[in-house]
Structures are given as C-alpha cells and as structure tokens.
Amino acid sequence: MKTKNLTIVIILMLSLLTNGVNAQETTKKPANQPVARAAFKMPVAIKSAEILPDNSVIFRLLSKDAGTVAVSGDWMPGFGTSVPMVKNDTNLWTLTVGPLKPELYSYTFLIDGNRVLDTNNPLVKRDGTRNESMFLIPGVESDLYIVKNVPHGTLSKVWYESPSLKLNRRMYIYTPAGYENSQVKYPVFYLLHGGGGDEDAWTTLGRTCQIMDNLISQGKAKPMIVVMPNGNPGQAAAFTDAPVNITLSAPYDMGMGLFEESMVKDIIPYIESHYRVIADRDHRALAGLSMGGMQTLRLTGNYPTMFGYIGVMSMGLVDVSTMGLKPDPNQDVKFETLKNSGYKLYWVGVGKDDFLYNSVQTLRSSLDKHGLKYTYRESTGGHSWANWRIYLSEIAPQLFR
After folding, report:
1. Which of 148, 149, 307, 367 has its CA 20 to 30 A from that of 265?
2. How far separated are the first and last CA of the chain, in Å rounded?
3. Do residues 73 and 200 share a domain?
C-alpha cells in the first residue's frame, strides 16, 4: 500500500516539474516569435451578371450608403433607359432581367444617378470614350462571337507613315491562321468604324477576330486579311491628339474626304507593299458602319474601280447640309460609273429602329434608279453593335467568291 502511494506522489511531482519547464520555455521565446492569429476569411464573392439556365440575368451590388441603384443596358428600348434595383436587409441590391436572346450585351449601374461599372464583373468593353460592363449569352445567334478551339489568326497593331495627313498613325490588322508560315497571297477586307470610334472598335466591340476565326475554320469564309484603320484624320491613334492642325467641318470628318484620301494614298499602298496580298480590285473589299458607311460611299464613288466588294452598314444618303456641306452634285454620275465598273457585291444593311433608316431608303431609291444591283438586309433594332456584328458575320462569307 505504501509503495502504491509513493508511486502516485512521484507521478504528481513529475507532472508539476514538466509543467513548470514548459512554462519557463514559453517565457523564454524570442520577442519576434510569430503570434498565432485567427485564420483569414475571404469575403463572400458577389456574382453579378449571373446568367441563369433560361438566359435570365441577375445583377447584384452591395451598398449600404446608396439611395437608389439602377441598371442601364443596351437590350432596353430607348436611349439611356434604366430599371431600378431592389435592396434587401443585408444591403444587397438585385435585379433580374430577361430571358434575353443570345447576344453580347453591355450595361452600367446608376448609383444615385452616377453611371459606374459593375465592379463584380471583370468583363469590360470600351466604346470610344465610354467604358461599360459586358456579358455574353451563348446560343446560335452569338456562337460566332465566342473564342473556340480553332486555329486563331493574329491581330497586329501597326504604325505607319501617313504623308497625306502628315502623321504617324496606327491601324489594326488581322491576318488569318497560317499566314506567317505560308507563301500564300491573300485578299484584303478594309473595315471602317463609326463616329466616336477608333481603330480598336471593330475588334473590341465588333468581335472581328472571333468572327473571322470561326467563319474561316468552318469553311464559311475565305481566309483574308482584315484592315481596321482609324477613320478620324485628326487622330494618330486611340487616346491621342494629332500634333498638326487639321481643319474639320465636323467632329469626325464626315464629309471632308481627308480620311478617304489617306486610304488611297497611304493605307492601301502600305498594306500592298508590306503584306502578301493580291493587289487588284477583285481581291479588295470595303465596308463601314455609320460614319464608316459614309466614307465607304465616298471612296467607292470617287474610286469606282478600286473595290470589288462594297458594304454599307447603317448609313445612306443623308442631308449633309445640316453639317454645313453641300450635297455631292456628281452623285448620279458616280453611281452610273460604279454600275459600269464591274463590282462583285454591293451590300446594304440597317435596323428598323435606326435613326438613319430613312437615309438608307433614300440610298436604295438612288441605287434602284441607276440600276445598281445590291443585297439588302433589314434587321430589328437600331444603330448598335448588336446589328453590326451580325452584318459582319453575313458580309464576310460573301467576299472573294
């Protein structure tokens, strides 16, 4: 019995001695020893512009200080239309819209009347001086806009000398997959942006590279080079001002002819001397939207044997007197000359709600009067990239056939 008690006493003493040593070791730790902290918790991610299985879209914004929040999107009828969001008891504002048809859409939030991007959506696109959040509804209609596992072309941002404008300028050039490793000569498609845009517009907003990659890989379009210049003659490149004074009659040279002259004297010669191209009319195409459509009309009127394929999007014969310019007195003669030039395609497209719809009908009447054969495409919607992407996807397969 005494032996058992002695054993218990020894165990208790060893336990106390061990605890004491551990306590001493704790007090002797260096002053810079890291202190254990609570595990860092990531904030709960808020998913905005969430696309649901039925193509409805949920927008979300967390804000306790905002008085009003709304969404303004390009799928809404009317310019600048917005729909209010609703706040719950956790200060989360939400709005569900749709279902929407497959397409590439842009939108912004209006917080107490101030237009801002959706910070919970990393997808952003630039339209001139405007930045907007974006999302893509997948489907048959938007299938060409998606990056797919197909051979991809190359987009180059090329600086070139423009003696006619006394500027060093920039243009975007798409070369099809395989261009670098072949000796093939290609046709060229010159694609012009609209007023307020620049050389970046057709790739960022028009999805030109994705559309061309997909059409070419499917065998629906011929491999071609696509040249997208800056159509503003007073601008060297996007986000720059020209270091020379150019007197313009309108903000974007709608009617002065300076850019058109540069196309013929600077851009086309540069392309045909620096790229492997087939340098004749039947292997040159020209198309443009809005302002670019006006430039297309002027170029094909002044140089009727230069382009075999012509596309005019959302632009017609407008009353240029409102811009302080006189109508072209030689328009009828130019149409007659173009009719006899042997062009391959004349394509015209416009949306039913486009503010330039009537001008397009005036153009059609003039083409009919002079017996010019053309393809006409009338779509829904207005003066928007939703239409111009469709037009590009329909024009490209008809080129160089």
Report:
1. 367
2. 111
3. no
3-state SS assignment for residue 311: strand
Chain centroid to Cα 2, Å, comes to 93
CA distance 260 to 277: 21
* Residue labelled with tokens 């008809």: 398
In a domain, 207, yes or no: yes
Are 267 and 321 in a shared domain? Answer: yes
The pLDDT tens digits of the residues spanning 310-361 come to 999 999 998 665 555 566 788 889 999 999 999 999 999 999 999 999 999 9
Biggest CA–CA distance in the chain, Å, is 130
Identify whether residues 365 and 392 lie together within a single domain.
yes
Q: What is residue 186's DSSP assignment? A: B
Q: Tell me the CATH number at 247.
A: 3.40.50.1820
* Residues 291-303 pLDDT 10s: 999 999 999 999 9
Boundary of a domain, candidates 83, 108, 136: 136
Beta carbons within 10 angstroms of residue 314's beta carbon: 28
Residue 155 has pLDDT above 50, yes or no: yes
The Cα–Cα gap between 275 and 225 comes to: 9
What confidence category does residue 242 fall into, taking pLDDT thresholds of 50, 70 and 90?
A: very low
Q: Indicate whether 307 and 158 sit together in one domain.
A: yes
Quote the pTM value: 0.82
pLDDT of residue 323: 55
Q: At what angle do helices 208-217 and 385-395 cross, to 10 degrees?
A: 30
Domain containing residue 88: CATH number? 2.60.40.10
Rg of the chain taking only CA atoms, in angstroms: 31
> Per DSSP, what are the bridge partners of residue 92?
62
